[in-house]
Specification:
- The chain is of the alpha+beta class and 417 residues long.
- 57% of the residues lie in helices and 17% in strands.
- It is built from 14 helices and twelve strands.
- A hairpin with a 2-residue loop joins strand 2 and strand 3.
- The longest helix has 44 residues, at 279-322.
Length: 417
């Protein structure tokens, strides 16, 4: 048994020594023309950079959405008009975009449901807010005082509007932190000031603490304006709502609670008139859509990898022609076809890896800059996959030039001028 183990160990050591020699030779050959080596790797660099950067932006967007959902709580239920899930995926239906069908009676009925802890209706509309510093179009939520509880919002300056404010139809507003910054320079300046909402004066009674996010495709709650719905009848005279948000205390009862709400609403509406969603369904649906879009974008960016591979193959064919005599001499001194084949394949793999490492470095530096504005990041899986793909490209596009070099006749190769 001992001799067999010794022979096996010796064989492995010989192979490693052979590989080390081939790698050294490959590096020496590539370093003879440094500029050409870098230019040849450029196609792989661009491909890896494009794919990794797109992937990191996608991961950042996914994390941003996930953080927004988590900030609202896992026990949040959203009731909206129309069928939000069609063909197994989430979509904002035309009903949801255009028709507000819910009313105060629906809100009252949901409040009376035993498992309800808090409920808030919402009518959402983009309105112009004009402050001392600037005027902005804000996504405006018209609701009850419970909207702040439902969205887990906290006050930074001033107070929330109350049920009494709603009943009295007072013209007051609460601003998100970003909204206050844009309209009045800072939250302290905003408090107590008058802001004109579509030319109607409203008093700013509160500014919310920042929840973070914003600047992406999904608007942050920090960028909203909040009005008591009865004090905003100019914008919603029918007192109808686009959505109703509800929470139950015990997350374990979420499915039961959804079924109870469905049965409750079926007393007034048809089954296709509304949808009841929880955070898990919406997030999973967004994730599946995001994954599909990310795959398509990455596939488009990966075309440059194929172009880079073809560029490497062309250069390696040129290299074979330039080194015919060298190949002949190596064969004459005992190099086998397999040695020549492995040498040229190693050179293409190294060229691809150089491009991949430079592409990853450039991607990392770019992501460091982007992170100041957006939560993009590069994960370990992306790095490993990039290196694996670059090695694969080296193998695939290096085989033909390597075979041509290996099949050269030693005698004929030495005769070449």
């Amino acid at each position: 048994m001992q001799p067999v183990f010794h022979l096996l160990k010796q064989s492995v050591m010989n192979k490693l020594t052979e590989l080390k020699i081939l790698i050294n030779l490959a590096f020496k050959d590539l370093l003879k023309n440094k500029i050409r080596t870098l230019l040849t790797s450029l196609g792989i660099l661009i491909g890896i950079f494009s794919v990794v950067l797109l992937n990191s932006l996608g991961l950042g967007f996914k994390k941003y959405i996930e953080d927004q959902f988590k900030s609202l709580g896992a026990n949040l239920i959203i009731i909206m008009p129309g069928k939000a899930f069609a063909g197994g995926s989430y979509r904002a239906t035309s009903n949801y975009q255009m028709n507000a069908i819910f009313d105060e009676k629906d809100v009252s009925n949901i409040e009376k449901e035993n498992l309800t802890s808090v409920v808030a209706p919402a009518f959402v509309k983009y309105l112009e807010f004009k402050g001392d510093k600037d005027s902005k179009i804000l996504e405006t939520i018209m609701s009850t005082e419970n909207v702040f509880n439902v969205f887990n919002l906290e006050i930074d300056q001033g107070v929330f509007f109350t049920q009494a404010d709603i009943n009295k139809k007072v013209k007051v507003t609460v601003l998100g932190s970003n909204s206050a910054q844009k309209l009045f320079a800072n939250s302290q300046n905003a408090l107590g000031k008058t802001v004109k909402v579509e030319s109607i004066p409203y008093k700013v009674i509160g500014v919310l603490k920042s929840k973070g996010g914003g600047g992406g495709a999904v608007p942050s709650l920090d960028d909203h304006g909040y009005l008591p719905y009865k004090g905003a009848l100019s914008f919603n005279p029918d007192k109808k709502f686009l959505a109703i948000y509800a929470k139950t205390e015990n997350q374990a009862n979420l499915d039961i609670y959804k079924e109870n709400l469905k049965n409750l609403l079926l007393k007034r509406y048809g089954e296709d008139d509304f949808s009841i969603l929880d955070q898990r369904e919406i997030f999973n649906s967004f994730t599946s859509i995001f994954n599909m879009v990310n795959i398509v974008l990455s596939a488009i960016a990966a075309i440059s990898l194929v172009v880079g591979g073809i560029g490497i193959m062309n250069i390696m064919f040129v290299s074979v022609v330039e080194r015919i005599k060298e190949i002949g001499i190596r064969r004459a001194f005992g190099a086998r076809e397999r040695d020549i084949l492995n040498l040229f394949i190693l050179e293409t793999i190294i060229l691809s890896l150089i491009g991949a490492i430079l592409g990853l470095t450039l991607s990392y530096l770019s992501v460091l800059v982007i992170q100041r504005f957006f939560p993009a990041y590069i994960d370990l899986k992306t790095v490993i996959l990039s290196l694996a793909v670059s090695v694969s490209i080296g193998l695939i596009f290096g085989v033909l030039p390597a075979l041509r070099a290996a099949k050269l006749s030693p005698v004929e190769a030495i005769r070449q001028e």
